[in-house]
Structures are given as C-alpha cells and as structure tokens.
Amino acid sequence: MKIPDDKKSSNFGLKTLSIEEIENVEDICIHIVDSESRTICYSKGCEKIEGQKKENIIGKTIDELYTFNENTFNPHGSIQLKVLQTGKVMKNNRVKYKTSENKEIEVISSTYPVFSKDKSKVEAAICVFRDIGDHIKMANTIQKLESDLAATKRKNGTIYEFRDIIGSSNKIKECIRLAKKASENTAPVLIVGATGSGKEVFAQSIHNESRLSKGPFVALNCSAIPDNLLESTLFGTCKGAFTGATETKGLFELAKDGTLFLDEINSMNLKLQSKLLRVIENKLIRKVGGNEQLPINARIISATNQNPLKAIEQKEIRADLYYRLAVISLNLPILNERKGDIPELVNLFIANHSNVFGKNINEISKDALDILLKHNWPGNVRELKHIIDQSLYMSDIKDTRIEPNHLPVYIVETNPNKNNATQHLDISNNTLKEKLNCIERQLIIDEFNKCNENVSKTARNLGLTRQNLQHKLKAYDIK
Length: 479
Fold this sequence. Notes:
Blueprint: E1 9-11, E2 16-18, H1 19-23, E3 29-34, E4 39-42, H2 44-50, H3 54-57, H4 62-65, E5 66-67, H5 79-86, E6 90-99, E7 104-115, E8 122-131, H6 132-152, H7 170-182, E9 189-192, H8 199-209, E10 217-221, H9 227-235, E11 236-237, E12 248-249, H10 251-254, E13 258-263, H11 270-282, E14 284-286, E15 293-295, E16 298-304, H12 308-313, H13 319-325, E17 328-331, H14 342-353, E18 363-364, H15 366-374, H16 380-394, E19 401-402, H17 409-413, H18 418-421, H19 432-450, H20 455-462, H21 466-475
Parallel strand pairs: 9-16, 9-17, 10-13, 13-16, 18-19
Antiparallel strand pairs: 1-2, 3-4, 3-8, 5-6, 6-7, 7-8, 11-12, 14-15
Helix pairs in contact: 7-8, 14-16, 19-20, 20-21
C-alpha cells in the first residue's frame, strides 16, 4: 500500500515537511519506500552518492534498484525490506550494495518504520544514510581532536609522552633509553639538540614518566625574555621592587613539586647564571626586591641548541653551572643523522593532519619521499612537520597521496637530483624555451599558493617586481 498524498509529509515539531522539501536535502541521504518497497522519496544526497537521477528512481522497488550480497556486512540484506517486514527500527548499520548501474556503495544507515494510523501495519520505511567515507573521516577527526584536547587538558601542562617520540633508528632509540633512565630520578638534565630536534618533547616525556608527573611542567625559552625581565620571571617580585611592581610568583614557585624546563639556557646572561647556580645549590630563591629566602622544590631540565663545551669556551655558559645542570646529559640526533625515521614520521604527520585539513591524503609517493630523503633538514623534525602540513594544504580534495608538485619549491630546488624531481611537470614540449616556460609557470604557481595568492609577497620571494609578476600571471593564465 502506498502512502496517501495527504500523508506524504513528516512532522518534525516546528513545521511539517513535504516530500518535495525532503528531496532537496543534500547533506545526508534520505530514501523512503512504501509498503510495497517502491520509492516515494529520493533526496539530492542520494543522487550524489549513488550517481542516479530522482526521476529514474521514483516508483521503482528495492529489488529493481539494488543488489545486496548477504555476508558479514549485510547479514540482513536490504535493511529497508527488513524494517518493512519487522516494523523495528534498525540504527547504524554498515551496508554494502550495488546499484542497477553496477556501482558499489558502502554506507552507514539508520532505517525507521512508518505505521498506519491504527498501528496495525507498516506503511513505509525511511532510510537515512551517509557514505562510509564520511563517517570514517568524521571519526578520525573527532578522535584527533579529542586526543589533542585531552593532551592540552592535562593538569600538569604537558602534551607529550615517550610514546609520542617516533623513530626506529638506533640513535633515537638510545636517546629514549637514556631519557627513561633520567625519569627514574630527579637529578638535573641537560638536553643538547639542534633547533627542531625535539628537546621539549623529551623534556615533557621525562617529566611524565617521573614521580613528579602529577606536579606542574613549567617551560621558559630564556632567549624570548629580555635580560632585565628574566630574573623577575624566574624568581618573582615583591611589591614596590620597582615602579609598578606587584607581588608576583616566579616560575620556580609555579613549578613547585614539578619540573622547570629552561630552553636555550646559553642565552641567559652570566650574572643571572651565577644566581641560578646558587639557587640550584641552596634550593632557595629570593624575589626581586625582597629579603626573604624562600625554599623551592622543582626539578630543572635545561636545553641548549649549541655544543655546551664550545659555549663554555665562548663564555656563554659558566662552567660551574654546566656541571650542575648536566648531571644527566642527553644529546639528540639531528634528522639528517636518522633519515631512516623519515618515512615513519611522514606517515604519522599525514595520519594526524590529513582529515583535520579536510583532505583525503593517506600516503606519500615514492618520488616525493625520495626528495625528502635527499634533503639535509636544517630545521629537523619541526621542518619536516611543516613541509607535510604545507603539502596537505597544497593538495586537491581528489588527491590521495603527496606528490612532488605538492612539496614546497625550495625542497625541490635544493634536491641533488633536481632534474629528476621536476619530472612531474609537463615538459614534453619541443623547444627549450617551451620547457623553461613550463618550469617557470610551475614555480610561480607553487610560490603563489605558498603565499596564499598574495601578489606582492610572491613577487618579493621570486625576486620580481609586482608588475612583472602580474604580467607573468596573465601570460601563464594563472588565476
């Protein structure tokens, strides 16, 4: 029995929606069949996923439209037919089927029965569904956001643990081993590593593995604070210590029963280094402008991006402070020394960020990976992460893997096998001029995208005048 025309509407509380209004819904798929399984409503969302037109679907039965293979995915065959038979709601079913055009579809569906006025029979079945890919992308995005939110919500102020340190090379595994040994006690640790090598990641991991993990983790980049403010930042101030000064707590107090991480310790002036040395020895601080000595109880983990022995020679670090800070010393390898970890790192960055950026990238091509493996990585892991993020931004929604043309221009330009790296460009033209024009066009496109289509910035980065660049954009038909 078909639903009468006067009943072809659905009451959602605020208003009654007609079948025609429901069919205009694009974001989700809504397919309604009557008691004889003939289609009476087929939304635009259904048209998008199944590649069918409404006029070709209306009036046709489930059996005419679809083929269901009863297997682990489809234990019930057609969910809509099952609901018509049983009158029971069936929610969140994963279903695989083929359309009459032999197109394979996989969806998550929920189907609801519509009963006659006297509840004696099922008059229709309403199926609401989404493509399985949308669900997976949404689930991955939610999982990533929940993970990030949980991390930032840790009461101790940290994000990273040892499990977040990626790499299977002997050098990084040895660093992890030594760092875990350091977490067994509360002795001062000095982490030596180049910019972007993960010094704070290791510092947080040591803190979270130690018995101080419930205490706060307080971090300070010493180079980011002017010398005349660094002392008050570390030790706090007393009211009236200087014009406008109020009673404040320093980072040593804030890090009580936890860890104080001092990054770029070599940028601290020597006079303040001597005060820091005294604090480490006596476990007492004196606020700026105060006379009272206050006990402190915080573990110190420090870091430097410079060879500490050279820093001592150049009088950037006091030798006596160095020996106090480096009771345990940890030397992090640069990425250039552990290139075997690059594929693992790349896969992690893609997995973590592809869905968040709204892209379908799930891997990197061999050509693109070869370019990354040949780069010297002055910015280390941080640089690699930024490059993968930029490549994801540069990819199209239809792309499923990172290709050389997604990589920043400077990576391709500095590649030792630059000629091979540009093979993704269409340089099959006959003349040298045409080939050079093709390469120039691609370089302009890459830089233009990198600069978010800012003409002035693109021209500056390419060493062109704004007028010259605009001429080239027009000549190469770059919109």
